[in-house]
Amino acid sequence: MTEVVIAGVGMHEFGRYNDKDYRTLGSVAAQRALKDANMNMKDVQAAFCANVYEVSASGHNVLERLGLPGIPIVNVENACASGASAVRLAYQAIKSGQYDIVLAVGFEKSPRGFLHGAGYDHWQESTGLGANPLYFALNIHEHMVKYGTTKEQLAHIAYKSHKHAVHNRYAMFRKELSVEEILQARMVCDPLTLYMLCAPNDGGAAAVICNKETAERFTQNYVTIAASVLETRRRRDMFVPAVSAPAQASYPFLAERAAQSAYKMAGLGPEDIDVAEIQDVDAGSEIIYSESLGFCPIGEGGPRALAGETSLGGRIPINVSGGILSRGEPVGASSLGQIAEITWQLRGEAGPNQVQGAKVALSHSEGAGGNSCVTILVK
Amino acid sequence: MEGLVKVPVKDGLFQFTSPSPMLIVSCCSACGELVFPKQDYCPECCTDTMEEKTISSLGKLVCFTGITSPPPGFKGEVPYTVGIVEFPEGIRILGVMTEKNIDRLIPGMDIEIVMDTAFIEDEKEYLTYKFKPVQ
């Protein structure tokens, strides 16, 4: 059985860079990942390049900065799950034996403000239904009605994110915020204030994916991909850009299904996970997904977070990098950034945000169209 | 909006000329799955077994949010509210609500479907379905 590993990761700091284009953001991340793996483009046999908003063949334009070895390059667009989808393609390419070394790189120079082009029909946008934060707000409001989740718990998620991000050089927002500041910030989509929503921004992230035998020729500092899963929306998932859903359904929600598949593939369960990076595109999503991924019972995500279970030092630290709320979300790069963060955690290189003794880590991304990726890495 | 031609924001979403406004949905003749807006293929069976039906019943408000800044492509006026309403036929539908802000909205309240102005453009009044709390 081929063991698929990540031999190196790299990121271009997430932020806002008016003086840099996507080629720079992507190539810096790729170059850092290759350097981390003690490789260069000449070693790479194929590349999957994740991006959402650029022109065609953007990955080709990014990688030509690092050399032109003539390898197959495939551009991947899967909304917020683009980066993890590229990793999954790389994983499969190695697992099948087709290649020994594959590069996955994600990069984005995001438009400012509300993201558009998330698959809405014209009438949805013109009447006011075509806005992603609407969906996030509605999802968490239903959770509040059903389970009693509070605005204070939502504020705590954003507070925790910013507190952790102070130590992360790759995050855009590195200033601590008080719960009061978060609650009193401008209301964007009730109950979500400005600081409870992520900001689309610029950045890059990359991973070099190999079979274990090949990786060992270059580095001993690798981690194993135990699961790499992508699932998409079914009818009950009222996710961007769905307009309706059945009132009742007999099957689990999207993130629950993706998590179940990933745990099965890895032969592990949520109790085995030491640290997780999950799609906190807003504070409500972190609460909902912490439940979907099995880290706590459904409905208890808010109180558990408030009690510190998901903070650094807690039972299951979630988004100790600061997550998407503090890193910002360069859409095509975001989920590869999560994978870089959990790789550093398993290698014991996460600095002040290190989860001591982390052996198993999970990343989860979820995006427009109804894409959910769950990746599990083990040391 | 006297004198303006009334047109739907999109054909096939709703009936606005009938006395009681109705949403047009698809119902699968094989499994009963309901979908709005209407479509040819059943999302569960993946077969073209959908039949057109209408919904005009009262629903219950599941959840809601208020928006104060116009999202991209929005042609109406802020502030406005959006909600998910669950209908007894077994479908929940996303829609703009008639209320400007969330102050009077309560989860579980009865909601009726109405036709209302979405926006005015090129001297036409574009209509959409909205969810209105039953007084």
Q: Percent of residues of chain B in beta strands?
A: over 45%
Radius of gyration of chain B: 16 Å
Number of extended strands of chain A: 12
Mean pLDDT of chain A: 96
Major beta-sheet overview of chain B: 5 strands, mixed, barrel
Arrangement of strands in the largest sheet of chain B: 6-7-8-10-9
Helix content of chain A: 25-40%
Instruction: Output the number of helix runs of chain A.
Output: 13
**From the 3D coordinates, which CATH architecture of the domain at 4-113 and 200-215 in chain A would you assign?**
3-Layer(aba) Sandwich
Report on the structure:
The complex is a heterodimer of chains A (379) and B (135). Chain A is an alpha/beta fold and 379 residues long. Chain A has a domain at 4-113 and 200-215: Thiolase/Chalcone synthase (Peroxisomal Thiolase, Chain A, domain 1), CATH 3.40.47. Chain A has 13 helices and twelve strands. Chain A has helices at residues 22-36, 58-63, 82-95, 122-127, 132-147, 151-165, 179-184, 212-216, 254-266, 283-292, 301-306, 323-327, 331-346; strands at 4-15, 46-50, 73-76, 101-109, 187-189, 192-193, 202-211, 223-232, 244-246, 275-277, 360-367, 371-378. In chain A, α3 (82-95) packs across α13 (331-346), α5 packs across α10 (283-292) and α6 packs across α10. The radius of gyration of chain B is 16 Å and the shape is globular. In chain B, the strands form two sheets. Chain B has a five-stranded mixed barrel. In chain B, strands 2, 3, 4 and 5 form a four-stranded antiparallel beta sheet that branches. The A-B interface holds A 113-114, 116, 120-123, 125-131, 134, 137-139, 141-142, 145, 187-192, 234-235, 238, 242-248 and B 9-10, 13, 25, 33-37, 43-44, 62-76, 80, 82-84, 86-87, 90-96, 102, 107, 118-119, 126, 128. β9 (244-246) of chain A pairs antiparallel with β8 (91-97) of chain B.
